Fold each of these.
Amino acid sequence: MKTIKEKIAYLRGLLEGGNLYGKDPNTKVFWDHLLGILDDVAESINALGTNQEELAEYVEAIDSDLMDLEEEAYQDEDDDWVETDCPECGEPVSFEESFLYDDDVQVTCPECGAVVHRGDSFLDIDELEDFDDEEEEE
Ligand SMILES: [Zn+2]
């Protein structure tokens, strides 16, 4: 299929070959004018096509960036962090939210070492030793 520009060029060729207009000189003026308009229209459509391509590329880039952001956002969602204050020294302590639901985990304050959170079945080795000592004393 021929492009619009090629079709216009074909018409212009017919015009310049003298086949399109008869004896009336106004006919050539009319055709010249009409072909000029067609040129403008073809040019506009061409420019629109170029703009559209640029726009499509831009949208694609935004889409790609958005996907990266979504990935990051969902990753953050996977490991939420809990922030609390140390009951001993008041320092803010943050730890993974999943620790709250893990019975075998203990979270201690990085400043003073106080226990901030302890799972229900967490066994503290130091406390076990203390327990043994107490038994021996009895
Ligand atoms: Zn502390």
Amino acid sequence: MSPASVPTINAHGAAIPAVGYGTMLFPEPERAVELILHALECGYRHIDTARKYGTEQWVGEGIRASGVPREDIWVTTKVTEENAQADDFARSVDTSLETMGLDHVDLLLIHWPQPNVPLAETLGALAKAKRDGLARNIGVSNFTIPLLDEATAKCPEPLVTNQIEYHTYINQDRLIAACRKHGLLITCHAPLARGAMLDDPVIVEIAAAHNKTPAQVALRWTVQQPGIGVVPRALEFSEIEENIAIFDFALSDMEMGRIGQLKERNLRVIDPEVRRPVWDEA
Ligand SMILES: NC(=O)c1ccc[n+]([C@@H]2O[C@H](COP(=O)([O-])OP(=O)(O)OC[C@H]3O[C@@H](n4cnc5c(N)ncnc54)[C@H](OP(=O)(O)O)[C@@H]3O)[C@@H](O)[C@H]2O)c1
């Protein structure tokens, strides 16, 4: 198997591989390293982790085991909302780097908004991590339109992305427009809606027409839109391979439109009660 070649999405000098490998909810350590290693062998050059996931150590081990030069791999990690105060934030970044055995990440994100800490304080800590060379790029995750307006106004360094839930089953049109207005890329988490759309008749039909799988069509629909990347998680080698093999076909305008209508379902699969912001209306 030859490694896949993946295009990048670009903003503020950042070139993020449009498909990354998500590492949330992972199995036991030995298998975790094996999975990350397999992703790198298939051609993934973007790994998405977070302090909260408990997978940073395995990401570091997988990268070292792969022999792929560090500078060829885009590593994203995130600071949880429990560490939104500046001192805690800085400690979290240091711990992430130490855990991964890396001296910097390519992208550092505020994982979830924290209403109890002034956003300017957290943004200051985020920007400081960049200025100190610990993060090449910075961004946010799960930010709504009002939070994005505030963050882009207050952050001393440019934000490159908002990592949000986006897939064929959710309407994020207004939030995506806001990201674009502010010059941010969109990184989609849960891009397969944890599998919810994989037996949708429209997706199944279009997949058959292209001789692709439903997952490939769902991911292709997403990355075929400008400035949008995805970080699917898969625990089967075959699915890891499948999810990156989406750049050798294209959906027609009509197919894009048909799949685009599925958003009316407005299914949000990542909606944790303790930290959800007031989501934007569709
Ligand atoms: N910023 C945030 O707050 C946030 C929140 C959630 C997720 N994330 C990031 O986004 C990543 C992905 O999100 P997610 O894991 O929640 O959901 P997801 O990627 O939408 O879905 C993962 C599910 O889809 C299945 N799957 C993957 N590829 C498949 C394929 N080719 N065919 C059939 N089924 C397939 C997986 O099955 P198996 O597991 O059985 O292989 C798994 O059950 C996470 O790992 C994390 O890095 C970020």
